[in-house]
Design goal:
Length: 308
């Protein structure tokens, strides 16, 4: 015998690129018949070859579950927490402007080294969902965070446009916040209340960078990519990303919700244009660094900056 197999028989074919159909029965034959068989099995299980990259195919259901889990471990949970916090503020005695939303607080008052350890621990663990996204995109065959444009290929472009976006959005956001607080729609945001220790400003800068990386990688790059793969329309993707960004800032009040939704719309449109979250990470980091460090330097020194 020459080893040939009659066309009518079946054999088990391992399809490593199609993880949800890894071990299935397909008829022997040419590559065309194999491809038709895999597509048929994909149709039977609700999978879509279009929602893939780098040859790894996942069902739309699995992509949806993955996206939900990533958000539940990160900014989705933050959104729910912010909603609960805002409801608590609404039902508390007194106007919203008399209440404070505190960021970057001391975790071990009067124990600076322990406080520093807790600060670094919080920053590091907050970045774990970004590592998870990088892992998932690598398994997908997309090249990790490079697929989202978060890499070192265009540092000049990222920093230049990031600075321009930060300059345009930062001042507008500050005016919106002051106006919303004056109208009673916003809490008083206290960007930092760390003790006067040597590590104060390095920690504030690290916190700002961590915020920017987590938010832009997940709520823009990853979420837009996954919703595109799930065949959401572009306007629905835009609304989902911007809405999520606004919601997890709701603990600040209505001004935080509206302002960050507007920022989310701009960031998604820029991501569509550039195909990179690098400039958005740079812009967000610069905005937060100025907010955190600026408050530390100016609080109580200027009359126009609200303090708790």
């Amino acid at each position: 015998m020459d080893g040939a197999r009659p066309r009518g028989l079946s054999r088990t074919i391992f399809v490593p690129a199609f993880e949800t159909l890894a071990v299935r029965k397909c008829p022997c034959g040419g590559i065309g018949e194999l491809e038709a068989c895999v597509r048929s099995l994909a149709s039977d299980t609700g999978s879509s070859p279009e929602g893939s990259a780098g040859g790894t195919l996942l069902s739309r259901r699995l992509l949806g579950q993955e996206t939900g889990l990533v958000l539940a471990l990160s900014l989705g949970a933050s959104a729910l927490s912010a909603l609960i916090s805002f409801l608590g503020s609404l039902t508390a005695p007194g106007p919203l402007s008399d209440q404070a939303a505190n960021l970057n607080t001391s975790r071990a008052p009067d124990r600076p080294w322990l406080d520093l350890a807790w600060q670094l621990f919080g920053i590091a663990t907050a970045l774990v969902p970004v590592l998870l996204v990088a892992h998932l995109l690598t398994r997908e065959g997309a090249g990790g965070l490079r697929a989202l444009g978060f890499d070192r290929r265009r540092p000049g472009f990222d920093l230049r446009w990031g600075a321009a976006v930060a300059a345009a959005i930062g001042g507008t956001g500050l005016l919106l916040y002051i106006g919303a607080r004056s109208a009673g729609f916003n809490l008083t945001v206290v960007p930092e209340s760390l003790p006067e220790v040597w590590w104060k400003f390095p920690v504030l800068i690290a916190s700002a960078v961590q915020n920017s990386v987590v938010e832009e990688v997940i709520v823009v790059g990853y979420l837009v990519r996954r919703l595109d793969q799930l065949r959401w329309g572009p306007w629905a993707v835009l609304a989902a990303s911007a809405g999520l960004r606004g919601t997890y800032h709701l603990y600040q009040g209505i001004g935080g919700l509206v302002g960050n939704m507007a920022m989310g719309v701009v960031f998604v449109l820029l991501y569509r244009r550039w195909g990179r979250v690098g400039p958005l990470v740079a812009a967000h980091a610069l905005i937060d660094i100025v907010a955190f460090a600026g408050y530390a330097l100016l609080a109580g020194e200027v009359s126009w900056l609200p303090t708790a």
